[in-house]
Amino acid sequence: MRDWATGFQAESLDDFAFSKKARERIQRFGLKTKMRNHLLLFGTSGIGKTAVARFLAGQNNADGIKEFACETLVSLTEKERRLFHTEMINRLDGGEKGITRFFAASDRKTDVFIINEFHDLAEKGRNALKSVLENGLGRAIITTNSLNVIDAAIQSRCDLVNVDSVNYGETQKSGKLVMRDDCGMSSGEWKKELIRVGGVYAKRNGYEADDALAKSVLDESMEHLWDLRKYVRNLQYAYEDKSGDL
After folding, report:
1. In what side-by-side order are the strands of the sheet with 139-144?
2. Rg (the chain; Cα; Å)
3. Which of 9, 15, 95, 159 has the fewest Cβ atoms within 10 angstroms?
4. Strand, helix or coil at 109?
């Protein structure tokens, strides 16, 4: 049985859990809207930045998507490689040589570029990417766990979207769910959004949505409120256990 967290193929933006504000900003890059700017998605690990980037890129240019993985080793299925024309390049010289080789072999004006896990690039790699953006590039979607590592010159060329809804630091300190002030959602609304998306995953994998089961999984760990990957994986275990598929 496939892993729900890594094997899921989104069909629309409704398949993702977003705050109201993040959804509004991301919708401009939807199915029939051509991307005019670069997009920078930032937020905690596991929230779904890479999945969103791949979906948006596919909606804008299904035939010319190039993905550069900034981390040293990345594991993608062969289906993902074929679907997204993914070119895997290990980090070389802090990412500088990899970035240079990657863009040299691409059509800068027509391809859609995904620069994944930007925070894993060393300074030379970041400077190389900055140079590429400054000298003209069609469309790029950059993902990172930390906005602080993104040069101001790069930020100025991107639409910035914080995909986090939960105030991670304050939630850990207080032991209760604290939402970001700028996300436009209450804690109750965010939990409902996660339960709704849990139902989407269940239906796509042949189960009838069970909101009570999704809520019980959410309540198992505070991490499930900000780590969508962990939440979905444990939700899968709960559905399989309930149905006897384990």
Report:
1. 65-69, 112-116, 139-144, 38-42, 158-162
2. 18
3. 9
4. coil
User: How large is the average pLDDT for residues 36-43?
Assistant: 81
User: Is the pLDDT confidence value at 219 over 50?
Assistant: yes
Q: Hey, what are 142's tokens? A: 């950059």
Q: Do 201 and 8 touch, CB atoms closer than 8 A?
A: yes
Q: Is the pTM of this model over 0.85?
A: no
Torsion of CA 5, 11, 12, 16, to 10 degrees: -10
Write the burial class of residue 126 (CB in 10 Å: 0-12 exposed, 13-18 middle, 19+ buried).
buried
pLDDT exceeds cutoff 50 at 93: no
pLDDT of 182 reads 86
Length of the chain: 246
Three-class secondary structure assignment of 69-103: ECCCCCCCCHHHHHHHCCCCCCCCHHHHHHHHHHH
What is the C-alpha separation between 24 and 190, in angstroms, rounded? 15
Who's near 97: CB < 8 A, 6+ residues apart? none
What is the rounded distance in angstroms from the CA atom of residue 175 to the CA atom of residue 173?
6
3-state secondary structure 136-199: CCCEEEEEECCHHHCCHHHHCCEEEEECCCECHHHHHHHCCCCECCCCCCCHHHHHHHHHHHHH
Task: Please report the domains of the chain, with CATH numbers, ordered by start residue.
Answer: 20-162 (3.40.50.300), 168-243 (no CATH)
